[in-house]
Amino acid sequence: SKAQLFDAENKVKITFKDVAGLDEAKEEVQEVVEFLKKPSKFTKLGGKIPKGALLVGPPGTGKTLLAKAVAGEAGVPFFTLSGSDFVEMFVGVGAARVRDLFKQAKDKAPCIIFIDEIDAIGRMRGKGQMPGSNDERENTLNSLLVEMDGFGTDSGVIILAATNRPDVLDSALLRPGRFDRQISIDKPDILGREAIFGVHLNNLKLSPDVDAKKLAAQTPGFAGAEIANVTNEAALIAARRDKEHVDMQDFQDAIDRVIGGLEKKNKIISPEE
Ligand code: ATP
């Protein structure tokens, strides 16, 4: 049923200006951008560029967004693979997909391979607790390790992976020459939320009473994904009310709605920092 297990985007429009906050993480990936722009500048001096970096942090904090922005900044293709798609795969298929992905990526280098939810493939071997066939997951993991070892940094392919469970990852993935770098992507603090609101408010027709600072203060514990959600809900609520502009009341109602949704999902909203 899952015909396409990876996705390729040749022209990525997202850049760092779409990613609010995350200044340290952006600084850390800047080096990857420089490398992808001009691999030969680095490799000709004999330096070894890391093959992969692990973006670690809770859901919805912008890991995918940041990885995509790296591709956008460097102007290189972006290949995505989602770990969870492998869970219910027939024997042999996952490993074949990984090989196929790396082959295509090498042809398009310089480029980025992004593996979302790598923990779904990269759990410690012998520790089950995931649906689907364990053998198949191990096959897939092994083929990922083989592929990562099989190319040098001169191939121009950089692998970024995301997880919110670095603790369950097979240590083989974290060895030097594989994902030997971790970049942490935390939930935004109040200033981070204000910045994220800033980015998303840009897309709306706003009433002058809308204040990103106030919205940030009212959304403790929200990740970027929830803020994006609030912004979109507010626009839909305003439209339903036949308004010409989205105002603070629409935002208030959107925040209540998103909090209601989070409570239903039994998510815990952490107290304000
Ligand atoms: P998951 O672990 O659930 O896959 P993620 O960390 O990869 O989540 P994204 O998919 O990148 O999160 O974020 C979802 C959406 O939330 C983004 O497309 C964007 O609209 C918004 N968002 C998240 N973080 C930020 C941010 N720092 N700046 C601007 N928008 C953000």
From TrEMBL:
Full protein name: ATP-dependent zinc metalloprotease FtsH
Cell location: Cell membrane; Membrane
Family: In the N-terminal section; belongs to the AAA ATPase family. Belongs to the AAA ATPase family.
Keywords attached to this entry: ATP-binding, Cell membrane, Hydrolase, Membrane, Metal-binding, Metalloprotease, Nucleotide-binding, Protease, Transmembrane, Transmembrane helix, Zinc
Every AAA+ ATPase domain range: 49-189
One Gene Ontology term of the molecular function aspect: ATP binding
Quaternary state and interactors: Homohexamer.
Keyword rRNA processing on entry: no
Primary localization: membrane
Function: Acts as a processive, ATP-dependent zinc metallopeptidase for both cytoplasmic and membrane proteins. Plays a role in the quality control of integral membrane proteins.
Binding-site positions, ATP: 57-64
GO process annotations (BP): protein catabolic process; proteolysis
Gene Ontology CC, one term: plasma membrane
Coiled coil: none
Native source organism of the sequence: Persicobacter diffluens
Claim: Protease is one of the keywords in the record: yes
